[in-house]
Protein 1
Amino acid sequence: MTTIRLSVPDTAERDEIIQIRAMIQHDMESGFRVGARGEFLPRDIITRFECFYNGDQVFAADFHPGVAANPFLEFHVRATDSGSFEFVWTDQHGEVWTDTASIQVS
Amino acid sequence: MPSDLPHSHGRRQFLKLGSSGLAVALIPVSAFAETDDMLAAQAELFGDRPVQTGRVSVDLPPIAENGFSVPINIQVDSPMTEDDYVSQIVILSPRNPLPVLAQYHLTPRNGLAAVSARIRLGGTQSIRVIAEMNDGTLWSGEKETLVTLAACVVL
């Protein structure tokens, strides 16, 4: 089971810049590590992260093997409307993990 | 000085060679190739567009005890409005096996051009962060960090 941890404020003032933190549990196997028999462990990483605010993409990231295991990101979004954030991670094989958080903007 | 003495000329030549050789030996040969990798990656991303120094502040610990997970904070000086915003932030490394570590795509709706993450470092190096503005101009910042346990030797 993949653990996703999100930090999104429950409420915000309109036009307030809120801080968002998102982390997903993943080994991010770089492809440069050597296994017990001296063979390179095959690369297995999450390559893409996207954040949608009420359906609009507001932030995205491309991950490469230089991103540490359990990729963590902290970024900011201007709170404009009440609604939801959707966070989407996609790995190199196309597997997708998503999670959502809601916010009340007054 | 009589120039028909071959041994004195030869010694001078030898000393000259020796000192220049020493100067080169002090710089690790691989350092050139590794920086080249980073510059090649930068050219692939941004072509030969000029990169100005400034507007990007990079925060890394001065000593990273564990290269497998090094916290990095990036902040770009930008109003983040519809007309003037940071569209992309790229982290480049001169020493990791792959020079591009991560790319972040921002929009005016971010309000603040600041990103924090955790990266892997394959040794002591100066990390370069390039920010691309919506008008296509490029700005960069660098920060050096000492890595005691590199992420790539234990690999």
Note: The interface with chain B takes residues 17, 30, 32-34, 53, 56-78, 80 of chain A (CB under 8 Å).
Protein 2
Amino acid sequence: MDELPGRAGVVVIGAGVIGCSIARELTRYTHDVVILDKESDVSSGTSKANNAEVHSGIGEKSGTLKQRLNVRGNQMYDDFVSGLNVDFRRQGLLIVITPRSLPEGLARYSPGFLCDFLNRRVLPRLIVRSGNRKGIPWLTVVDRDEIFRMEPNVTRDAIVGVHDRTYGLVSPYKLTIALAEHAVLNGARLCLDTRVTGIRTEGGAVRAVVTDAGEIECGIVVNAAGVYADEIADMAGAGGFRIHGRKGATLIFDREATREYVKGSVAEFRITGRKKRTSKGGGAMPTLEGNLQLGPTAIEVDDKEDTSISGDEIREIFDRFHYLLPDFPRDSVIAMFSGVRAPSEDEDFIIGASKEVAGFVNVAGMQSPGLASAPAVAEMVMQILHDLGIPRVKRAYFNQARPTPRMFADCERAEQEALIERDRRHGHIVCRCEQVTEADVVNAIHGVVPARSMDAVKRRTRAGMGRCQGGFCTPWISEILARELGVPRHEITKKGPGSELFVGPAKCLLDGASRRDGDGGAV
Amino acid sequence: MSKVRRPDCVVIGGGPAGLAAALAASSAGLDDVLLIERDIELGGILPQCIHDGFGSIVFKETLTGPQYAQRYVDELARTNVEVMLETIVLDLAPDRRITAMNSRDGLVDIEPRSVILAMGCRERTRHQVLLPGYRPAGVITAGAAQRYINIEGLMPGGKVVILGSGDIGLIMARRFTLEGATVEGVYEILDHPGGLTRNIVQCLNDFEIPLHLSHTVTFIHGPGRVEGVTVAAVDRERLPVPGSERHIPCDTLMLSVGLIPENELSKRADLRLDPVTAGPLVDERMETSVDGIFACGNVVNVYDLVDYVTHSAEIAGRGAAERVLEGRPRKAPVTVVPGRNVKYVVPQLVRSFERDIDFYFRVEHPEKAVRMTVKAGGETLGRRKAKMVHPPEMAMIPASVPGGGSEGVRELVVEVAPDAE
């Protein structure tokens, strides 16, 4: 991790997918970029707790910035990830029209043939036409039989569907890590565990970013601080907008029970009676590794750090998907997570150079489809930054690729043998659910953006994401982390300071022993 | 492909089941037995079980876990069973082909004449029981806590709330207390304890740790490290009773909410599994639905005593030896059906009545003064009486068919009924 430098050309606040996309884009033109984040790893906020969907933009209201950047971002994705060594797959979205699609009042008081006509003929065409107008190509109407051929587990109530082939899947945290590493490989500096406490301005222009680790002089600040973007903007006097937290919870199912349970994203089309604009409302989708995921919910929260999941939310997800996927395996949940979206008051993205403070650029109001829009957001912000003085000429020596060590589980037999030949630690599986080797973990710990906590190792290697949820691998991985970082084992954390796995070495709570005495090594 | 080995028998897992199975296979006449263990030492979970209570049936004395394991490790050293430590089995095919790996030999192919599965079980996690709340550090399963304190020399928590009254949870309530931690209480969602009575007495009562039946944890507070939990009473449907919530500050939530047989390899080998036990269907000599693949111990179902694990493993070891040495084709099996107040029975299948068979089973609900029987049609093959049966304590009935003939037997029924006398 980099020391906080005394000055920089551009400071990007926030190492989520948006901040890292912008930073990576910046390094094509200048190396003089510093990324700051208060957490101990990149992708520790909203970006990590995301359903991995790259939306097409079909669900967004026409005329919004969000809708335009979503469509553009989706189209840019293949180029965006090229060279990053990150999996991206266009798995498609199947929008299913059911008897519940029409508003309840209309369905109840209209004759059956009319509802039938609307559902069967009108709704699918409306969806296709509205999508085409938004610039989404290749939308096709699929009949009932085709729905079941595509997704055999969907409710028999399905009437007709619309297939959107442009929907994609990308791991949001792997993408963010890759973008951060790509930026660092191209000269950016990444300062984690660094909290911004103020923005110093002089004569209506940005002069420095003040942090708990010191001050960085700079002329340009990009505010990509997610749920805290309003507070950061206020520090500079470049605010005037409010970000409120909206929590989304997702359930992940055991891959063994749910592989191919849905082949792509599936969502039920519903016209709700009330006009309420919220974040995109969830669906069923696979992960890139093949687990079923259901969610997310959308609940307004006061606390921007409220990443809890309540019993009501679990029940809500169960109830909601019980209709769309009547037989989904309720007893195969292996993980639950929630994240806090960062919507603005009018629900649209807020992207632009501050009119009050020269050199201060807000990139705020980020919520779904933020992941899908990231390439287009970076492109748009880059134009703003050019106007603020960042050269328009690309650097000659930009490194296009971000090389990554091969993971054991991703390899065929011959390649696995070669990996073991090169590094014997590949012969030692530490996470048996996901078949992660000791060498995989060591590589993550010594990566370009090093993993320094259990969760950071998990995000890079999948160790601990399987059905035992770390039950077997935590002892191994905490030991490897302690060894490689050169710290006592009881200082190893789940996700940075304040999340220590242990209270101290054994006997530390008995008379005379102090919590900090000695190492907690094997006895 | 120079690495292919063709032993008589491969035992997967070096815990109590694997140790006893390897020994039994060897003493029943197999020369080339290979025992594969993932960890750096044999014994499985036993080395971390430093409390006593092991061996009362097998050795007629109570030993600690390490002592119990050491007896088998010592005996194994006197045989020619080959042990591969720090080796993981990556794959098991239905034709018994095994892919194993370690850092010394790399990937190794093995084509054994028989396989004994002895991988044990794993712990249920908070997500599997859908526990709401944050995801902080300090939510830990009982077996993992035991490993940290007894093997790794690390203290996982200072103020502990325990959810679930399974045996390991009770043992760890005492262990945490002896290590200077405070155990606030044990919360059990059911209206009866999950662990053995002797553990309730020795681990909770003796240390004045309260046991709250019909209670559960409804929220885990975080976000960094556990800051507390909310507990609540539950109604008959096991749903929290509104208004009964109580906040308990703590830094650790330890879960003892059940064990699941470890059957990833069984699934790869296409073994038929019992949906109730979550383990493979086995016959009277612990052979699975796939010819030449045997299973024993907690892979088959979660036993409550290591002695039973050992017993099942010895049967499997002898069975594998018979299979290799005699090699006669298998007969079609008779099904064993759980009858009144019986949740499941092991073995689930019987192919031969030549030897006496011990039927292990669990009841569905507690019952006093019962008669337990194994019946074939109208004929009673075995019976036992008990003053009390309850789900956490496994029951067993030895049964035999006079003369060993099984002609005409279609189905066996194991049942528990009120004792009329």
Note: The helical segments of chain B are 16-27, 65-77, 142-152, 167-178, 197-204, 264-268, 306-326.
